[in-house]
Amino acid sequence: MIESARIQLNRWQQAAVALGSAVGALVDPRRADLIAALGETTGKPAFERVLERMKRSPEGRAVLLERPRVISAKVGHAWELPANTFGAAYARFMGSRNFSPDDRPPVRFMDTDELAYVAMRAREVHDFWHTLFDLPTNLIGESALKVIEFEQMYLPMCLMSVVGGTARFSEKQRRLFFQSYFPWAIRAGMQCTNLMCVYYEKHFHEELDDVRRKWGIIPAPKQDIA
């Protein structure tokens, strides 16, 4: 599926897609396809570094070998797990927002199948990270998670998303973000484990608090960020 969706671009075409995607995403931040294209066309060196880190990690190598997908057919059992587990917390997060794990756009602009999988994995574990860090999906929550994602993967798109997101903040939101959520996200991203090397699906049955401790996760501050 990943291989069949890919489109080979030369450098000029990549630059054109990146520029067009950046402009389009600023105009309409809800366009997940444009944000995905921006991440792929500007993020190859970052994804290559992520791939090398995964190869050096036993659990990361298992992910690369088995290539699990975060789609309904593979993670649907999370909805049947006990309430205190990581899997059930993920199911509640998805259900409360009427999200489907099948809604992620395909990877189109990676050079190899291996890099395409890493890019898809980064896209698909995003909701696991929301669950683990207890971050909502509003503007401040997404911007804070992009700070953590940048620390974890050094993707230029994450940094651009933070800049674009904060530009749309109200004065109250901007003050709250930079006084509370930004410093928390810096600390949280530095303290936690290498999150791309985690085989999340094999930990669904474990208690949420236990996996947070094991992976060094600091949940987000509890403040009104509406």
From TrEMBL:
State the oligomer form and interacting partners: Component of a multi-subunit COQ enzyme complex.
Q: Which InterPro entries match?
A: Coq4, Coq4_euk
From the broadest rank down, the organism's phylogenetic lineage runs: Eukaryota, Viridiplantae, Streptophyta, Embryophyta, Tracheophyta
> Can you state which reaction this protein catalyses?
a 4-hydroxy-3-methoxy-5-(all-trans-polyprenyl)benzoate + H(+) = a 2-methoxy-6-(all-trans-polyprenyl)phenol + CO2
Among the GO molecular function terms of this UniProt record, one is: zinc ion binding
Cofactor(s) the record lists: Zn(2+)
The name on file for this protein is Ubiquinone biosynthesis protein COQ4 homolog, mitochondrial
Q: Does the keyword Metal-binding apply?
A: yes
**One annotated Gene Ontology cellular component of this protein:** extrinsic component of mitochondrial inner membrane
Copy the pathway line from the protein's UniProt record: Cofactor biosynthesis; ubiquinone biosynthesis
User: According to the UniProt record, what class of enzyme is this?
Assistant: lyase
Similarity remark: Belongs to the COQ4 family.
Entry's EC annotation: 4.1.1.130
Keyword terms: Lyase, Membrane, Metal-binding, Mitochondrion, Mitochondrion inner membrane, Ubiquinone biosynthesis, Zinc
Q: How does it sit in the membrane?
A: Peripheral membrane protein
Localization per record: Mitochondrion inner membrane
Protein's job: Lyase that catalyzes the C1-decarboxylation of 4-hydroxy-3-methoxy-5-(all-trans-polyprenyl)benzoic acid into 2-methoxy-6-(all-trans-polyprenyl)phenol during ubiquinone biosynthesis.
Residues that coordinate or bind Zn(2+)? H126, D127, H130, E142
